[in-house]
Amino acid sequence: MGLRIPAVLHTPRVDNDTHRLLTEMAATHAPPLYEQPVAQARQALKAVTARYDLAPLEVAAVMEHRITGNNDYAVPVRIYQPHVKAGTQANPLVYFHGGGWALGDLDTHHNLCRYLCARAGRLVISVDYRLAPEHPFPAGLQDCLTVLGWLPGNLHTLTAKYNDLVVMGDSAGGNLAAVVSQIARSDPDINIDRQILLYPSVDMNDSDRYPSRDLFGGGEYFLGLADVAWLKGMYLSDSAAPLDARISPIHAQDLSDLPRALVITAGYDLLRDEGIEYAHRLDQAGNQVEYANFPGTIHGFCSFAGALSAGQTALDQVCNWLLA
Residue 251 is part of a domain; what is its CATH number? Predict the structure, then answer.
């Protein structure tokens, strides 16, 4: 089809901003995530995100809300309302945060969501889905679907319209965005128009088919294979199969008729090659796909956009794509 993959996927060394960030991270001598208790790891991710985060942009309003699903669990969400012209309504974007299904929350992605709201003029709904290990698969996925099912009948109360619905996520959130995009095909009440996947985790199967796992999985580039194994162990119960498309969306038997996609990867990310492969498969199945790689930086770089110019550029590309 029309998908183009850059010839150079990673530079001879990380870019200057990323080198500086990695040097500062190493100087803290903090233990790797997989060696920390989960509560400590959650605080560590929150601290590093706050240190390198974007400056907060002005939006019209930020509201806390809870959405109750069929299981009676009330999913917390944070809703960002953009400034709109009188008589107009914003289109919605539902955001699923990253953090390996066990870390991350509304606060770790607060300024990122404000940025999307302010620059793209979107009503952004950030989902605080339940986390592992307290709530392993499929609890978090169910929460994401609960929020999507709530939108059609309730967006009018938020000065928004159910039009051009976008789902977006980074890392584990990218996984969730890809999975709900597949599930929504068979749900007449959920109509997803576009999906944005930032350095997504799309294949939970232990495989050597992705060279980036060996090249960048040692832990020196922020996320390592040991971290992934630790997070995977918390997210998946013994009965959960990594080849289940609800866990590894790349293994879906049918990838046709999916929302238009923007897939973004990082050159020094162990998840890079599975992101590329998923973009390829979406394209080969007849979907509209745009792909971008940022060759000199690392996993999670959009969450560090206050320190990494690549993160700022990537988010601007996302906003331009939304406005097109």
Answer: 3.40.50.1820
Per-residue pLDDT reduced to its tens digit, 56-115:
999 999 999 999 988 889 999 999 999 998 889 999 999 999 999 999 999 999 999 999
Asked if the structure places residue 5 within a domain, the reply is no
Q: What's the pTM value of the predicted model, to 2 decimals?
A: 0.98
- Pick the catalytic residue from 171, 181, 201, 248: 171
Q: Is 269 a catalytic residue?
A: yes
- Give the per-residue SS3 of 210-260: CHHHHHHCCCCCCCCHHHHHHHHHHHCCCCCCCCCCCCCHHHCCCCCCCCE
Annotated active-site residue 29? The verdict is no
- Counting residues of the chain whose pLDDT is more than 70, the rounded percentage is 100
Low-confidence ranges of the chain (pLDDT < 70): 1
Which two tokens mark 188? 């007449």
Q: What's the distance, CA 89 to chain centroid?
A: 25
Query: Which of these is catalytic: 17, 53, 269, 283?
Result: 269
Helix (H) or strand (E) run with residue 124 in it = strand 123-127
Residue 11 lies in a domain: no
Whether residue 299 lies in the annotated active site: yes
